[in-house]
Amino acid sequence: MSISSEHKPLGKQVTSSLHMLSPIVELNVGGEMYTTTLSTLKKHPGSKLAEMFTGQPKLRTDSEGRFFIDRPGTYFKYILEYLRSNQVPTQCIQDVYKEALFYDIEPLIKQLEDSPQIFGELVARRQFLARVPNYSENIELMICIARAEAVASRQSSVIVCVVKTEEDAARCQDALNSLDMDKKSVVKFGPWKAVPSISDLLDCIQMDVEAKGYKISFQPHVAEKGFRFKSHDFFYKFLFTWW
C-alpha cells in the first residue's frame, strides 16, 4: 500500500521552512554553534544577515537541522553581541570588521570604522599608500624577485629604492642605471605627495609583506666597493628569511 503525499515524512526543505517560523534559531557558523532569536538576526532589515532569514530560508542546514553559514564562527559571537545589546566589540577589531562587511550590518560597520584601529588603517595608512604609485604591484614584484632568488638558500634579498620627491628621484637615477647595468633588480617606490616619510613607507612595506606570511627585515643598502653614487639614503635591502 503506497503512502499518500500528505503522510510522507517531512523533507529537509520543508523542515527548514517550519524551523524558519520558530522564534528560536539554531546556527552553525563555520563549526561554531549558536542559538538566538529570529528577531535578533533580523534586527537590521537592510543587512545581508537579515535577508538570509527573511521569507523562505536561503541557507543550507547541517546534519542536525541547524542553519549553516560558511564564515569564521569565532567572530560571529561579536556580531551577535552587537545585535543583542548594541555592544561594539573591543577585541579582534580587524576580523570583526571583515565579518560586519560580509553581513552588511551598516551601523556596526560605521562604528568600527571610528575605532582607532580601523580609522588608522583606512583613513590614514591606506589613504597614504593610495598616493604612492604602483604600491601594491611593487609589493608583489618584491615577493616575486625574492622567491626567484630563494633556490637552495635560507635567505634572499631585494634592493628597494624609496624616493619621496621628484628631486630625490633625479638624484638616484645614476645609481639606478648602474644597478641595471650590473643586472641587479631594484624595486622603486615613489615619489609621492603626502606627509609620511621614507621611514614610514619602509614600515608599511614590511607590514604588508609580513601580512602575506613572509618573514622579512630591512637595512640600508651598502654599495659594493667601487660603486659610485651618494644616494645611499634612498636604497635599502629587504631580507627574506625562508627557514
Annotation, overall tally of beta strands: 7
What is the rounded Rg? 27 Å
Number of helices: 10
Summarize the biggest pleated sheet. 4 strands, mixed
Largest sheet, order of strands side by side?
A: 5-4-7-6
Low-pLDDT regions: 1-20
Taken together, the total number of domains comes to 2
Shape: elongated
The structure class reads alpha/beta
Key traits:
4-stranded mixed β-sheet, KCTD7/14_C, alpha/beta, Potassium Channel Kv1.1, Chain A, 243 residues, KCD14 protein, 10 helices, 3-stranded mixed β-sheet, BTB/POZ_dom, T1-type_BTB, disordered N terminus, 2 domains
Task: Please specify the SSE layout and strand pairing.
Blueprint: H1 12-21, E1 24-29, E2 32-37, H2 38-41, H3 48-52, E3 67-69, H4 76-85, H5 93-103, H6 106-113, H7 116-129, H8 135-148, E4 155-162, H9 166-181, E5 186-189, H10 198-210, E6 215-220, E7 235-241
Parallel strand pairs: 1-3, 4-5
Antiparallel strand pairs: 1-2, 4-7, 6-7
Domain BTB: 23-120
Pfam families: BTB_2 (PF02214), KCTD_C (PF25611)
Protein name: KCD14 protein
